[in-house]
Fold these 3 entries.
Entry 1:
Amino acid sequence: MQTPVSDQVTTGPIEGSTKTYVATESGLSVPMRRIALSNGDHFDVYDTSGPYTDPDVEINVHNGLYPLRRGWSSEHRTQLAWARDGVITREMEFVAVREGVSAEFVRSEVAAGRAVIPVNRNHPEAEPMIIGKNFLVKVNANLGNSAVTSSVEEEVEKMVWATRWGADTVMDLSTGKRIHETREWILRNSPVPIGTVPIYQALEKVDGEPEKLSWELYRDTVIEQCEQGVDYMTVHAGVLLRYVPLTARRVTGIVSRGGSIMAAWCLAHHRESFLYTHFSELCEILRSYDVTFSLGDGLRPGSVADANDRAQFAELETLGELTHIAREHGVQVMIEGPGHVPMHKIKENVELEERLCGEAPFYTLGPLTTDIAPAYDHITSAIGAAEIGRHGTAMLCYVTPKEHLGLPNRDDVKTGVITYKIAAHAADLAKGHPRAQERDDELSKARFEFRWIDQFNLSLDPDTARAYHDETLPAEPAKTAHFCSMCGPKFCSMRITQDVRRYAEEHGLSTVDAIEAGMQAKSEEFAERGNQVYLPVVE
Amino acid sequence: MQTPVSDQVTTGPIEGSTKTYVATESGLSVPMRRIALSNGDHFDVYDTSGPYTDPDVEINVHNGLYPLRRGWSSEHRTQLAWARDGVITREMEFVAVREGVSAEFVRSEVAAGRAVIPVNRNHPEAEPMIIGKNFLVKVNANLGNSAVTSSVEEEVEKMVWATRWGADTVMDLSTGKRIHETREWILRNSPVPIGTVPIYQALEKVDGEPEKLSWELYRDTVIEQCEQGVDYMTVHAGVLLRYVPLTARRVTGIVSRGGSIMAAWCLAHHRESFLYTHFSELCEILRSYDVTFSLGDGLRPGSVADANDRAQFAELETLGELTHIAREHGVQVMIEGPGHVPMHKIKENVELEERLCGEAPFYTLGPLTTDIAPAYDHITSAIGAAEIGRHGTAMLCYVTPKEHLGLPNRDDVKTGVITYKIAAHAADLAKGHPRAQERDDELSKARFEFRWIDQFNLSLDPDTARAYHDETLPAEPAKTAHFCSMCGPKFCSMRITQDVRRYAEEHGLSTVDAIEAGMQAKSEEFAERGNQVYLPVVE
């Protein structure tokens, strides 16, 4: 399906949906995506796409989005500080509506440090969202030009495209000369929190030579990004000099870019990381903008062979130490996790992170559960992401089919996001999130009742579901036919079940035993009907 | 990459591999796929592709494959009967080499009923393979024309294509007039065991009217298929009359085709299923050909809402009862499982199946862990397949992206098979299969040492991995470049780790502490090198 484009970004609602807003007591309006159903009913879902899917909003990337949160608070305090003081902020109220929980519950989770609301006071365009184990599992999409690619508009479109399909946050990992300008465009046009890795820009300033990095240069870079409005920052402050040798016998050594930069600096100077030695000063800077720490796992495993090793867990211990320091400063914190981990070693990562880091939200990259499928690492990692998500990981960083091989294109970004929405939702179901199963049931009912268009529109990707169906049965009538394209009209069922059910309802039978008592009559009715039966979909 | 085609089927080795054969003491030759490595070494992997990937074998689908197993045994006994008598058959010996275990271990697992070797004596073309929790997790691919499609050659090619990418068995679910002929072609050309659902053909014989089915007609159909050489058969003998009402209040009722046929028959006649009442006779027929039962779950859930409900588990209890009857008759048995199950309810399925069915091999369809992603159900189900596999499921029936929407094409079949090889391998890693991690480590080493072509060839899909890499860096030299296409020459590392490692090795440091002692010297050496550092792949 074609979508209109304004200033090179995708706008207009997702097929079958409209934008709606829920008004709160204090007058906030919280966006939701409303899926219309053919039976006249509708189903509302969490909406990450921002104003781009609202036809009533004029989009101009040169002007940026409306600064929703401007003036929500004049004081320079963090969500953590407010929460500790028992104050429910508008951000908390906004988030509560999105999640379907009470604002007080949101406040208490933030106060405990079990959840973070990453909203830099200088990024008023962002719609507040929450990351924590007791909320919907979130998905992050990494974007970032390599030096050679793409206009700034293209970078903005990548962000819009990722959030359209469900990315809850976006990390801008751009490198190269126009890094500041690119980030500015993304921030002014982003409805979701933006994360960065400041060490990348700092390295640009010293021509890519890590040993030339200094605390002062790094600090100034962080302040520059805080001023712009970056909502959370990856800081690899846990890569200590003494941990570097622990990677010597690994199969794949250090695979984190930031981790290897800091390891290189430590080796070059044979001194402790300036990120570690100046961590308290860093906390003071982030606190004054309410920027959230994403403490990076610079020593994460790059292969299943290296999973859960001494280097990885030594760093995690240090991240725990830093978490408590950051909290003393009133700064929100989440913790980054692996990487590559076989299924049986995944749960241990969550348990250890929660114990060492005081239940700070865990934010993992996959993990990939096997190394043998390059070109399919969105799948090898979705298996691990769903598993680590169900055990309590709060946000999943997506992996695209191009991982390890090349730069993701537009299709790869969509595939990565949809795949991770699946993993996040599978985890939500396993955790028993109150709202999670409603959507599964709505779609399953539509499937069972042959409401094809409802089935498409309730799915994560209506365009592709419809396209696959049309490959076999293009005709429009097929969308309302009471059979499945796999088996054809003669060979379709669930009808048999509908008969059983109808019978039960007609006779108001309240127990299955009672239904059973009616089986004889049932079988006669069935014989009268010419014993017609249809065959179902799956075998 | 183009592959030559003979008689419309794909032949020739997979990119980067050659066919090799391992000779056993008793003179059997067991096929393996040998992956050549650029360092002169090689890595052998389990090979399901049969003679089609051996350039020295002339393929003619009209003649069929060489009958490998003809004359291996003159007696009409089952692998189970031999195993119980302490006899190691050639099939067991063949399987032992493929799995890298002792033949005696194979025998003991078959004798215990924990594993099956599905080999009809009338399918001598098949290469023996084993299905059991203590062996590599297997993958089945469902094929089957809808009445309208495809020549018989096309059906054979689908089977060849699926086994090329790793399908361990294939189920022929064909319907329509040419069902017998199609199956004959597939059997004579298949190097893997073929499974069927005889009730489909039986229904064709009564013009699709279930109530016209009879034991006699079904029995004759089963004998016809046994004679042809079908290796295992799905029998929905657990769908009892009294269970049908248990589906009345389900969200998606009965979704198994065979299950609804038998439910319809039971309702029409208000009698118990003839599959259940004549089960012992059925056992005698299967025993005389050594055809393996795949006891079907006709009441499996068709949505996460219906998972683990009374209908599903009531049927499973009956399957347990039938398992013990079949074993008394010396017939091999596996048990089919769901379907649609949320992650937190998956483990219970395996535990219950093992307890009720005496650890008979479990063979599951997915399960899908959420219903909200039609067009991506290979992924929603790969998550469940990996999870159920790690808990002991022996074979995973693949799901393609077209599930619920349409008929899979050639690309869908490949995507489904590769996706399920990932799930099976992730489960093998989690179960600690001795051979599983070797391949991950080989590929990770290749990745770390920038042996790009080795990385492609060691992957599950060398063609796609190479194609994705070439999108960014097409030039041939890039295949040997010591950097990654994501970051470019200046921005690539692991180099730092290689330095750390090289240092450790040069100094013969045996402990990490000792390495640490050498850090000062290390930092000087690093400074001399101009402090050059590269940035790694993933962030």
Note: Residues 484-534 of chain A form one domain.
Entry 2:
Amino acid sequence: MNELFSNRISSVSPSFIREILKVAVDPSIISFAGGLPNRDLFPVEALQKATNDLFNDSGKDILQYSSTEGYLPLRELIVADYKNKGLDIHVDDILITNGSQQGLDLLGKVLINEGDQVIIEEPGYLGAIQSFEVYAAQFNPVTVHQDGVDINQLEEIVTSSSSKLMYTVPNFQNPAGISYSNENRRAVAKCLSKTKTFLIEDNPYGDLRFAGENKISFKTLLPEQTILLGSFSKTVVPGFRLGWIVAPKPLMDKLVIAKQAGDLHSNYFCQRILHRFLIDNDLQKHIKKIVSVYGKQKQVMEDAIKQYFPKEVTYLNPEGGMFLWVTLPEKLSAMTVFDKAIEQKVAFVPGDPFYINKRDLNTLRLNFSSVDPDVIKEGIQRLGKVLHDLL
Amino acid sequence: MNELFSNRISSVSPSFIREILKVAVDPSIISFAGGLPNRDLFPVEALQKATNDLFNDSGKDILQYSSTEGYLPLRELIVADYKNKGLDIHVDDILITNGSQQGLDLLGKVLINEGDQVIIEEPGYLGAIQSFEVYAAQFNPVTVHQDGVDINQLEEIVTSSSSKLMYTVPNFQNPAGISYSNENRRAVAKCLSKTKTFLIEDNPYGDLRFAGENKISFKTLLPEQTILLGSFSKTVVPGFRLGWIVAPKPLMDKLVIAKQAGDLHSNYFCQRILHRFLIDNDLQKHIKKIVSVYGKQKQVMEDAIKQYFPKEVTYLNPEGGMFLWVTLPEKLSAMTVFDKAIEQKVAFVPGDPFYINKRDLNTLRLNFSSVDPDVIKEGIQRLGKVLHDLL
């Protein structure tokens, strides 16, 4: 049957992380492998109240087909939130999507022809790699450091080739946890301003800052070329699958056509619930609670790493988000560590899937958002033992 | 900016129906243009109860990220429903999608290379045309009659070319309202059995039968090549955006990869609500209520057509579903009628968008599911006056 498939899908492999998560589902395993928000922080009661109020007030209004662009009052709340952050976004430039993952798919669909070049962070978000791979993009990886992307590499890519897109997660990046400094952002913007390359600022974790200062958005530095992706998955709940794209007018027209052909519109019922939840509750207060918990969990993980990991193992220190990035001594493959770690009932994601065409790397991702402090300590201790044994 | 778009999106035009619906949004207009289920039949109370019970019992469990394939117990209910209809479907062959529209997009994504041929009903479902157009399919239209597709035309297409897909809505087709007879289905299956063409049986209206007998599924007649698409939009609610694909194993593997890269998974919260609703309520009883109302509305429309339309105007008589298809005398363009009808405050969809490359046709689609009987009568009377004036 294989000859019947499209070329685009034949080149995409099933997610390696997905396979790892299947291994890690054993409840006796301590898993730092996932990328899940902490379920104990879901605003269950407030969402239940919002849902009930809506059913009582608006009954059948919340259950019908709706517009492709998304529920207007929800988009207006997104505009207001950007305004608080100093960004002036027009409501017509917002499209509600099924999480920001669909934003990536729609952008791939309307922008990428086979062989088009895409600049991608390395290590970079696997979901973005997969999305663009479906449209047969060619990747130009640019290395991620503690303060952002490597500007020399970026200059070289921009000089020697012409890219449709650059994909970035400048705040608390997945997988490396780092944030771009303002200086790095300015340098990236300057570099791209000489090109026609769109810059995607994917910002699912931006509100989850537990240290340091907020940074400038690319939308301010490179307004004409920047596309923003946002998500309610990390600040409210992921199960609603609601996010959004901000894109300039001619591009938005194409995105709306692609969204309509793709699934007509996003879940209307949940857009209404989310909107009701946001007007009846203080989201900033809720986010503060999440930030306080994640900040504590990250600290516990860092302290445990200092206590239990061999000194040769280093890590990048995140100021927010959900991930911490570990580098092993060069000779040690994270895949080898993974196999031994599973025997000791602890899981993580080896670095490999976050790179284009590089294998047996000495890096790995640890998630701290969905694991309780005691369990974090125990898991890092187990992992430390594995590392000591291997080194 | 246009040179930056992908070739695939540049060739797709915004939906003509969408533009018409914008005109028809004026509340003083009687609209037969939409394709909406009747909102008065949404099971609001039962859904509210299901949601509340779930929040009370399962709280945070219903709000987290979930599996790409969809909620297993919901897929098991779909299997059970097929079993009642005499079809033996394995739960692993079902993928939950954002309505069956997303099923079309995923199938286009994993099957269609630029220029691949797709057999499509003419008139045919605009959403399918749009979805496959995005992947640059070439269409082979086959004419729809009262009893199904034109077998001679189909034989000719199959003999002279090689198609990846054939797209069908064999029950209460959109837009023509007709159903394929068992004889027609057998002839289609025989014709395709000599090919490697996949047959898509899209069945959003299949349960909404108010006259005649159920027909054989293509899954029985052509099991290896048939892909089923289903939807809860017409039997429960459209706002949840939940449907499904049934596809054989190697194809399903690719669809799951495409779904994962596209939006990770469908709305989990609504999958859980829908599942709870389905186990706590009698869906067949609910469907009977819908069928009784739609059957009555269709009868009122038919009676009014007989009373008010000129004798030269004919129509196809649907045994279920939501649409009735009208043919005007050959000289009269439905677009001309549309402009005059809007002046008389009544709207419908002219036939043009349902055809590949044909314009100024003398056909039109009337929707009867979402308009109350009195209003149907008044609207058909107005439209009859316009037609009499023009003829």
Note: DSSP finds 14 helices and 14 strands in chain B.
Entry 3:
Amino acid sequence: MSVDLESLYTDLHAHPELSFQETRTAGVIARHLADLGLEVEEGVGRTGLVTTIRNGEGPVVWLRADMDGLPVEEQTGLAYASTARGTDPAGNAVPVMHACGHDMHVTALIGALERLVATTDEWAGTIVAVFQPAEEYGAGSQAMIADGVLERYPTPDIVLGQHVTPLPAGVIGVRPGTQMAASDGLTVVLHGRGGHGSRPHSTIDPVVMAAATVMRLQTVVSREVDPRDVAVVTVGSIHAGLKNNIIPAEAKLELSLRYPDDAARERVMGKVERIVRAEALASGAEKEPTITTDHSLPPTINDVDATARLSHAFRRAFGEGAVVDPGMFTGSEDVSWFARESGAPLVFWFWGGVDPQKFADAVAGGTIERDIPTNHSPFFAPVLQPTLDRGVENLVVAAREFLA
Amino acid sequence: MSVDLESLYTDLHAHPELSFQETRTAGVIARHLADLGLEVEEGVGRTGLVTTIRNGEGPVVWLRADMDGLPVEEQTGLAYASTARGTDPAGNAVPVMHACGHDMHVTALIGALERLVATTDEWAGTIVAVFQPAEEYGAGSQAMIADGVLERYPTPDIVLGQHVTPLPAGVIGVRPGTQMAASDGLTVVLHGRGGHGSRPHSTIDPVVMAAATVMRLQTVVSREVDPRDVAVVTVGSIHAGLKNNIIPAEAKLELSLRYPDDAARERVMGKVERIVRAEALASGAEKEPTITTDHSLPPTINDVDATARLSHAFRRAFGEGAVVDPGMFTGSEDVSWFARESGAPLVFWFWGGVDPQKFADAVAGGTIERDIPTNHSPFFAPVLQPTLDRGVENLVVAAREFLA
Amino acid sequence: MSVDLESLYTDLHAHPELSFQETRTAGVIARHLADLGLEVEEGVGRTGLVTTIRNGEGPVVWLRADMDGLPVEEQTGLAYASTARGTDPAGNAVPVMHACGHDMHVTALIGALERLVATTDEWAGTIVAVFQPAEEYGAGSQAMIADGVLERYPTPDIVLGQHVTPLPAGVIGVRPGTQMAASDGLTVVLHGRGGHGSRPHSTIDPVVMAAATVMRLQTVVSREVDPRDVAVVTVGSIHAGLKNNIIPAEAKLELSLRYPDDAARERVMGKVERIVRAEALASGAEKEPTITTDHSLPPTINDVDATARLSHAFRRAFGEGAVVDPGMFTGSEDVSWFARESGAPLVFWFWGGVDPQKFADAVAGGTIERDIPTNHSPFFAPVLQPTLDRGVENLVVAAREFLA
Amino acid sequence: MSVDLESLYTDLHAHPELSFQETRTAGVIARHLADLGLEVEEGVGRTGLVTTIRNGEGPVVWLRADMDGLPVEEQTGLAYASTARGTDPAGNAVPVMHACGHDMHVTALIGALERLVATTDEWAGTIVAVFQPAEEYGAGSQAMIADGVLERYPTPDIVLGQHVTPLPAGVIGVRPGTQMAASDGLTVVLHGRGGHGSRPHSTIDPVVMAAATVMRLQTVVSREVDPRDVAVVTVGSIHAGLKNNIIPAEAKLELSLRYPDDAARERVMGKVERIVRAEALASGAEKEPTITTDHSLPPTINDVDATARLSHAFRRAFGEGAVVDPGMFTGSEDVSWFARESGAPLVFWFWGGVDPQKFADAVAGGTIERDIPTNHSPFFAPVLQPTLDRGVENLVVAAREFLA
């Protein structure tokens, strides 16, 4: 009896969980793997899972999918839209949504494992399937590594992974070299002095300090980075105050920074820190801002030879036009830690989840940004098919390419 | 057996409650009033209380105290500091503190009632004591009026109230005419378009929209109001986003506006609205901002004749230097609704709660703003004595002045 | 033959001169004074003039008028509008206009001298008439004092002066105590690093540094000054760059600051300097900004007794309603140096130059700001009459009040 | 007798002229061409020159050099530094400097013509040498075309040109396809309402309007353009006001915009216009801003085949490492109009003018931006040699490659 992948996908979509809280998701995955006759270890890196298919002599191929959802309030209007709520690390009740397609990643990997199990006479080697938690915190792969995943399982000859993205369905995007940006997540706390909303002069207003800082941070990208280089400085959250008539004592900013490499990281971080500190001085703050790095992700660098080999395999399987070079993505991933720490080559590719006609119309109309919701948008929703089938096939083709 | 007012005060201080949630506070008040042999009605205007002392023919004097605390995390280090938590109207868990001295107001009114009950042979008339909830929402007095307090109790010949403030202990501040500013509390929701933190171009960033709005709102006071007029535009809270790598779909600002009268209100409100709407246009927002008035407070206007009479009485009781004209305060109050709706005159005064030597040192050192915490500061803490005794005496002197 | 004051006024209006360049103006004044039979000394404080009327024993009354125009391009459309050009201290060709009414001041003083000369049998004492240059630079009175005017002419028993302003014609505004604000004029040079407009990352952009500084300076008044205090921080000029595709090496700001007294001056200056320096740091400037004080004016403080006496005289002459308390003006003057340095009392008053009906309509319509051009506006234009006649009468009444 | 190219260069450097004012420069060029025995036409496109070398049957090769300086105050400290002053189109006296190396371009072309004249036995065809004015206004090539240069001279088979740049001396940078960005120069006039610096409420402050606009314009690049795309929004000049105590009536901004193609141009222009208009609304401006396009430059697109051929020739002449792909430059050029209008292919390359050791040290130290002045910087100064010799050789090699 084959897995009903579409039902699995809509079930996962309707029940997203935040990073390191993917316990229901893990249970669903474990049950399906058991149905395939596979042994599965749960709780690897807190909420991750690993399963292994040993099929004679041959290369060791790691297939990785991430599992976690995001604190986003789903607005897709889908029949299987999420209404879930979770609790974020700060203890706040937040909505949760699979706004980055990790439900699709999990389902495609389970579908691929089913096919690979059914065709063991056609290939040889070892498959290690890794269901990784907490990609969105940039912490899950390191948690699994800290938990010994690289020692306790066969060492990879290659690490493979994929991500669904707003390309037209049917299209694979992959490039040799830097495929995704390096990134850092920072928390900045600006310290002012609280007081009565009617007496600003007796306070040091952290709301104005934060606003001035946000405006000034725009100049890092607009003025201080070579226009030909890639850099992003996003203030993803800003929080201060509880009531209109109380000037609060502090403000908190959460920043996401992106760049292609470590040299750029150092330059941009230096500029951000310079601006944050100077804007506190401009406010007359009595205490320096607190700047904390919450996570730090390396660039995702595809092995040049393995990428060429896989692109060739994809073209053979899906046609000449099926593979494009999408350029470096400004998004970031922690998948590369598995490759970096083990010394194995990595190939990480994107596959399209947008109805091709809709995509073509948006391109023609110049309305891509408005009409094609991106990952992390409350409207993000890959078309179920052919996205799901292609997600399965991509993994099968890729695994088979590197297996014997 | 007399009331232990100091214990009452520290108990109330340690157990603050948010607006319209003052149920423990109401219970404490009711118990003390019952101990004084007074009948008390609870639940007036949700969590308010009223008691009446009828003592023969004579004027009807209303004495009003407010009861609620604020969502502020106490940092006074006092032995009786609050560690309370509450739930704000949006459902968030927040710290709570008596950061505006309403605990002092309640205690002083109970102390004054005790003295007035003990001296009924010295005066004639009727005292109506009003323990009002939710002053901080600008909603409590109107809730009591909607609940019929003006019809169900003797109509006031005068309404009296007082507020503890960072004047030196021993000093009363009161002036005829406008004593406190008119004020509005606004909530502004700025609508952007959410998306991935690494792809700002696919979003309409509400964090930047909010920051630009906050910076532009500064120009209302700095450029558009006559420098000789009083106006305040405070953004007391700013909230957007849940995670560094998700650009949220909207941002919320809470504003507190202050002005001396309704003409200024109209002008300033118009400017604020113009700026908010234009900044959304500058961001290319696809939806207009939502601007809601949460509360609207009239100016607190002291009756000229009654204020002169009371100032004279205060000087007689406490010495010539005991009364100063503190100018108009930019803070606001909803006490005046009792007077406006009943047609009675109002006198509302401030009394000092700061150690006089500390105050003098701060004046001499030019460090008032740094060293003397104001109302709504996490460090706000009137010195217990003589502040409490004087709060009691003020009310007794004032009530006796207007009673027969 | 009497002076044709209207022709004199329109001639002066059509030929304004910048500060310390009032040579044509001085010539016109000298000729008229000579026609009145008065001896006049020219070149006092570079381009100023002084004349004296000695008429027996009695008090010495100084009457002062200022003479200079402003770098404003007149847009009044008047038949006698200025088309003059001048050269400012930086060597730039600029338009010039009597946008502050000093032409009216000069004409009124000449008219008053004519009347006083014609009525010497009615009064006794000494009149010193001072035509002061360069009030707009805040430098003229000090230049005259440095030139010995206080030693070389009879020491004043009182110093009197007046200013035309957008009050209704017929109204005098005067108050005891602080009549006009203290003020400082600052020049701020922000040092960046120049380069090609297409390569911002190789520069330190002084245009953005200047813009951020201007926005942040708004918070001095909006957040850091007690809303009940008077303060103004105006950036009256901003200059950087010569071409769209060259990022310049520096930017220049000229600031005008206003406050009621020296304590406020120190506080505001400190805040301005803090912000300017911090914004340079935020830009990563390699050189500290240069901050220069161009002029520094004391508050204009009217003597309490003399003001009461003069207000009484004005009411007697022009009717009870003719004198109002206009509050402290945020404008500034250097007239008070004559009084400060000589120890004499000062009275400085405003008189109205707006058609009363037009003023009343603007008040009723709430369009004062739009419809009634203020001093320094390119549309500033007192109605010729009754403004001029009243300017003459004011001085005659005032001088006679203090003469024997 | 050969031309003393070094003396020619330092003479041109010391005597820069603004766009369309290059009359002395034209005279120097004309004299040198005459010395070479060439006929020269002056006044083509106002101040441009053209000369032709006809040398038998063969291709027609156009060699172009631009001639104009910039309003920059030279700070190189060179013995031959410019102290020249000019008058810009607005009538202002400004400093003038060869801050973009056009003096080097002119000298190198004269040197190359000398060599080509001396070697006519080695090549066949026709050379058209174009000395173009007003490149910095983006107007010179169109002026020459309007003046009939394409009709009156042999039609080009190829158009060649070069630009000195901060690459190491000895290095040529060239790439097929888009070599330089498209660009627009805009003038924005923001209309406020002028008035007295002490009465901001009676004005609509254009300085604040301009500052807010500059800050908001940063978000075009930081938030609204794909981080992987190239775009620049520079405000190269900002001007408002003449005096600290007059709030002016308007502010003027000059913008330089850069992008790779016309689609991006349309998007960025739309965003800039949206922000400018919205910020005027935020200020309550009574009149819409005036936005004028001063010039509009197409991208400089190198012909793919001709670039390959020329790169090969350069490598053959100067060694394998001598040619690099410098990426698209964000600077812009009007040279391509000659190719676009005639239908000929274009190759435009950069050559290095920085001492190689100094360049290497700056790269190693991460101080490129600080230590290597770029074009348009007041410190821009190519090392005289080998820059000049290589400029000559580049042109000779390139011309000979495309001649018979």
Note: The mean pLDDT of chain C is 95.
